[in-house]
Each structure stands twice: as structure tokens, then as C-alpha cells.
Design a protein that fits this description.
The complex is a heterodimer of chains A (about 250) and B (about 350). Chain A is an all-alpha fold and about 250 residues long. Chain A has one domain. Chain A has eleven helices and no strands. Chain A has helices spanning about 1-25, 30-50, 55-85, 85-95, 100-125, 135-155, 165-180, 195-200, 205-215, 225-235, 240-250. In chain A, helix 3 runs antiparallel to helix 5 and helix 9 runs antiparallel to helix 10. The mean pLDDT of chain A is about 90. Chain B is α/β, with parallel strands linked by helices. Chain B has two domains: about 5-220, Rossmann fold; about 225-320, 2-Layer Sandwich (Alpha-Beta Plaits). In chain B, helix 3 runs parallel beside helix 5 (about 140-150). The chains are: A mainly alpha (about 250), B alpha/beta (about 350). The interface of A and B includes residues 87 and 93 of A.
């Protein structure tokens, strides 16, 4: 039992070590700034400027976009690059489980999203005077949503390739696809039944609804359901990542 | 004593391509074991399987007694890996790279700081410890890569092509470090196609070709068993009355037709004549020089080198002119080695 606890504490520490190293090495890389930082703001301003929208509604949308794009940007950028440079072999050969490594990588994207979303929220409140109906729920949504979307990005980062370009294309396509079927730009309540059914397949829908509830005080779904779905997807998205890594070990990546 | 590495029936297919073909070998603790082979022979694939980066199709790997298929964790704690490309984090300093690796191996703060100081001193990087690695030379990155691989004092170190592309001074420094690690008790598995490096460093070598182990022995034993690749190295100059172009042109073809010669290789300004009987060949060379109007500048008999053995086994020969009617007893073009 003592050995087990020691092993678990070691694995936690190793995941944290991987996270800290990636923060130091990759956060200021152009790819991360482009896909993780500028992209959500670009999307937000493209679809929100010159449209009549309350500041609260704008903040809820920005937060959903931020955690979605920023968190999902890290995996597809960092892992293929590390594979190409050979540094990923160092991590795979280290005495830690694949799960631990993936947890460390998940935290990299999640923390990036948490920081960017938190700064956005603070700016909304302090500069634009936006009121937040349920700050605690907003923080929980940012936290859990960031981890959920980071594991989504991890799936693409786990594709066995050494070329980040091979991963960026499908990852961007999927994210844009999810963006347009989710209730970000068209509220769920205004969607046709078929479109709404499609929207429920996207985790971004639940993040947006949760942010609507947290900032505006109104959402279509129960916020606990939204949180539960985001938590579940965070776990479920790890399964294909692990499978793809195992496939990579067979193929030699 | 447990073997450091025990490989049984190890096989790797990439789809339908057989990269490693049911190989068996062992590496004893404390030895420097060279794993030689031409490009594409299966060296790196084998090594990647040994360090858990690649899943074998078939077979068993025991690292320090631990079966990798059952539980790789205890084995991973005791191995260090230096891949072909120096996989260091160029955005970090040497110190940060070492601290990161020490943390990954769960060394205490005091332990990793003391070890990092020791390694940076030993590897000649102390002065540049706070400089980002992107400003390092290739040799410095290589040394740092090795330092990172040994920070946790692994019992078994895997080195993949540690010196190609380095200047002679850096290569020699790294070879010295490998010897030192071995003297300190680390088992070294050295993957290389630098034959001379293996000859100078390794206690034993295995030669892999087309995914199969073609030979495993000490370098000297391998040379002994390949006595038929003895050679005579000779350099000629024309006698004063003749022009160089008149005498040395086409000499390759003439030399290869000498009795007892199986193969001729031009080595710089010299010719290396492979033979099973150097003493018999000497008189033929003297006679040949006389009839061709040549003066012999140097004449040496050479025992087979490890490179000769390697080329014999792998069937690779560069710049070779083959005798079309070789002495019957020689059999220089014997099949690719199946020795063990």
C-alpha cells in the first residue's frame, strides 16, 4: 500500500514536471500564440462586432470560445513538435505511465486556457463593468471546460506523426465544425430541432450554455448537466489519445 | 549474475516489412556492447524496442531481469537513453535541462543539484550552464544529451550513434566519457556504424544485417575468425624515367590479376590487396613492381580489421575491384554471415 501511494505521488509530481517544462518551453512560441491566444479573440470579434449584444452575452461567448480554442491548441502543436525534435522519446522512455504523461500534457493546454479566460473575465468585469451572475459557476466552468477541451486537443496530438502540419489541419477543421454546430453564435433556443440535436453532440454547446448560466443567469440546460458532460468528455477523450499512443508505439512514432 | 539485457526471439514487422528477424542475444552487466550494422539493418529498431519506445511484434526482452512486456516500470528507472539526435530542450539552459530530467526521475533537490554540478564539470559545460542550449555547438549538445541520460546513474545506458558529425576532439571526449561510465559500472549498449569506434570501445559486438544477427563476439575474436581477409598494403611510385600517367593508370586491374589476390581496394595513394597468404603475395608484388617499372614506397601486411569483418559479413564493399578468377581456397565472396 505504501509503495502504491509512493508511486501515485511520484506520478503526480512527474505530470507536474512535464507541465512546468512545457509552460516554460512552449507558451510563448508563435504557434501557441496564434492558435491558442489570437484565434479565439479573432473568432469573437469576427462574429460579435457591430452586432447588438449585451456585454454579459459577449463575455459568456468569449469565455466559451477562449476555453475551447486555447485549451485545444496545445496538444496538436506541442506533441508532434516534440516527436519531430526527439524530445518526446525522452518522456516516453522515462519511468512514468502513459496516463501520467498525458495528464501532464492536458494540464499544459488547460492552464493556458484558464489564464486567458480568467484575464478575459477580469477585463470584462473591471473594464467593461460586466456583471457575472454566478462567479463560482463561471470559475468551475472555466476549470472543467479547459481540461475537457485540452483532452480534445490531445487526441489530435496523439496521432502518430512527426509533422505538426499533419495534425493542425484536421484539428482546425474539427474545431471549426464544432464551433458552427454548437450554440455559440445561434442560441440553442432559436435552433431548429435537427440543428439542436446536432448541437448536443458538441461539448462546446454545454460549455456555452454553462457560461450563459454563469454570466447571464439563464441557460437552456441544467448547469450541473453541463458540468457533468464536460467532466465526462474530459475523461472520454483520453481513451482515443491512449489508443493512438499505443498505435504510435507499434508504428514506431 | 543477471544479464543486463536478454533478448529472445525478438521480431518486429512494420506492416509486412520484416525489420528485425527473430534475434537472440545477451549483454552482460558492466560490458560495453556494440551493436553494428549498415543503415536499415535493424539497429535502431532493436534499440527502440529495448527502451520501450517500440512494441515488438514477437519475442521477449529482459532488462536487468525485468520483462518489459510484463512491467516496464522498474526497467525504465534503471536505463538511460541517448538517441541519435541530441534531444535536449534548446529553449532551456543546460542547468534547466538537467533539473528537468532529475525531477522526471524523482531525484531529491539536493541530489539532482549535486549530480548536475558534477556532470556539468565532467562534461566541460559548467561555464555555460546558464546559457540557452540553442547557442550550444553540436558537440556541446551531444555532451549535454549524455549528461541528461546519466543524471540518475542508470545501470544500463543506450547510446545511438554518439559521435557522427562531431569534430575529432568532441568525438574523442565522448568516447572517453563512455569509457569512464563503463569503468564506473554502467553497462553500455552502443548502436553505431562507426566500426573503428566500436573496435576501440567495445568488449563485445554484435553485427546485425537484414534484421538478423550475423555475428556476436569480441572484436579480436571476430578478426581471428576472418583470417582470410588479411591484406597487403602497398604504395608505388614510378621509376624516374617514366611518367606517373604511364605507370599507375590501370594499375587496379593489373594488381587484381596477381596470384593470391582476391580483391583490391584503392586506399588514398595506396592499394590494399586482400589475400589469404600475405607471405606468398609479397614475392609476386616485388616481381610485379619490377616488371611494371615501379618503385615500392611502402609495403605493409595487415591483419583483418573489424571493418574488414563487418564488410565481409554485411556484404558491403566500397571501391573494390574483384578478381574474376580468385584463388580457389579464398572464397572472399562468401555468403552474408551466418556466424554466431
Amino acid at each position: 500500500m505504501k509503495d502504491l501511494w509512493l508511486r501515485i505521488s511520484n506520478e503526480f509530481a512527474q505530470a507536474w514536471t512535464v507541465t512546468l517544462k512545457d509552460i516554460k518551453v512552449y507558451y510563448l512560441r508563435p504557434g501557441m500564440i496564434m492558435f491558442g491566444f489570437l484565434m479565439p479573440f479573432f473568432m469573437f470579434f469576427s462574429f460579435s462586432v457591430r452586432r447588438e449584444m449585451a456585454a454579459e452575452a459577449g463575455l459568456a461567448r468569449l469565455l466559451a470560445l477562449t476555453i475551447f480554442f486555447t485549451a485545444a491548441a496545445a496538444g496538436p502543436f506541442i506533441i508532434p513538435m516534440e516527436r519531430r525534435l526527439g524530445t518526446y522519446d525522452r518522456l516516453l522512455a522515462a519511468p512514468m505511465s502513459l496516463f501520467t504523461l498525458l495528464m501532464g500534457k492536458t494540464a499544459v493546454g488547460a492552464f493556458f486556457a484558464i489564464v486567458v479566460a480568467s484575464v478575459s473575465a477580469l477585463a470584462g468585469v473591471l473594464i467593461f463593468g460586466t456583471t457575472v451572475a454566478q462567479p463560482g459557476l463561471m470559475l468551475a466552468g472555466i476549470l472543467i471546460g479547459s481540461f475537457s477541451f485540452s483532452t480534445l486537443g490531445l487526441i489530435f496530438g496523439s496521432i502518430p506523426t512527426r509533422n505538426p502540419g499533419d495534425v493542425q489541419m484536421p484539428s482546425t477543421l474539427l474545431r471549426w465544425g464544432l464551433l458552427f454546430i454548437s450554440g455559440v453564435f445561434v442560441p440553442l433556443s432559436e435552433m431548429a430541432p435537427f440543428a439542436r440535436g446536432l448541437a448536443y453532440l458538441s461539448p462546446l454547446t454545454y460549455a456555452q450554455d454553462l457560461m450563459n448560466f454563469a454570466v447571464l443567469g439563464e441557460g437552456l440546460l441544467n448547469p450541473w448537466l453541463n458540468l457533468g458532460v464536460l467532466l465526462l468528455t474530459a475523461v472520454l477523450f483520453l481513451v482515443p489519445s491512449i489508443k493512438l499512443h499505443q498505435r504510435g508505439r507499434v508504428l514506431g512514432y | 549474475m543477471t544479464n543486463a539485457i536478454e533478448v529472445k526471439n525478438l521480431t518486429k514487422y512494420y506492416d509486412k516489412f520484416l525489420a528485425v528477424d527473430h534475434i537472440d542475444f545477451t549483454v552482460k552487466q558492466g560490458e560495453i556492447f556494440g551493436f553494428l550494422g549498415p543503415n536499415g539493418a535493424g539497429k535502431s529498431t532493436t534499440q527502440r524496442m529495448l527502451v520501450t519506445l517500440l512494441t515488438p511484434t514477437e519475442g521477449q526482452i529482459l532488462i536487468l531481469g525485468h520483462d518489459l512486456a510484463q512491467n516496464a516500470y522498474p526497467a525504465k528507472r534503471q536505463i538511460g537513453l541517448v538517441p541519435e539526435e541530441s534531444n535536449v530542450y534548446t529553449e532551456l539552459t543546460a542547468w534547466d535541462n538537467l533539473m528537468f530530467t532529475g525531477r522526471l526521475y524523482r531525484m531529491s533537490k539536493d541530489e539532482r543539484r549535486a549530480r548536475a554540478e558534477e556532470l556539468l564539470e565532467t562534461f566541460g559545460l559548467w561555464e555555460k550552464r546558464d546559457v540557452k542550449v540553442e547557442n550550444y555547438s553540436k558537440g556541446m549538445r551531444r555532451r549535454l544529451s549524455i549528461a541528461m541520460a546519466v543524471i540518475h546513474k542508470p545501470a544500463l545506458l543506450f547510446l545511438d550513434e554518439p559521435t557522427p558529425g562531431l569534430d575529432a576532439q568532441s568525438a574523442r571526449a565522448i568516447q572517453g566519457l563512455i569509457r569512464q561510465l563503463s569503468a564506473d559500472g554502467t553497462t553500455v549498449f552502443l548502436t553505431t556504424h562507426q566500426i573503428e569506434e566500436a573496435n576501440q570501445l567495445c568488449d563485445r559486438v554484435a553485427i546485425i544485417n537484414h534484421g538478423k544477427i550475423a555475428a556476436t563476439d569480441t572484436p579480436e575474436q571476430l578478426k581471428q575468425t576472418f583470417q582470410q581477409v588479411q591484406s597487403v598494403e602497398v604504395a608505388f611510385v614510378p621509376k624516374e624515367t617514366l611518367k606517373v600517367s604511364e605507370t599507375l593508370e590501370g594499375l587496379d586491374e593489373k594488381l587484381v590479376s596477381l596470384p593470391e589476390v582476391s580483391t583490391v581496394v584503392k586506399v588514398g595513394d595506396k592499394w590494399r590487396l586482400y589475400t589469404e597468404d600475405p607471405s606468398a603475395l609479397l614475392s609476386h608484388i616485388l616481381q610485379f613492381a619490377e616488371t611494371q617499372g615501379l618503385r615500392i614506397v611502402s609495403l605493409n601486411t595487415l591483419a583483418p580489421s573489424l571493418e574488414d569483418v563487418f564488410l565481409q559479413i554485411t556484404g558491403q564493399q566500397i571501391g573494390v575491384i574483384q578478381n574474376q578468377n580468385p584463388p580457389k581456397r579464398l572464397g572472399m565472396r562468401r555468403g552474408k554471415g551466418d556466424r554466431k
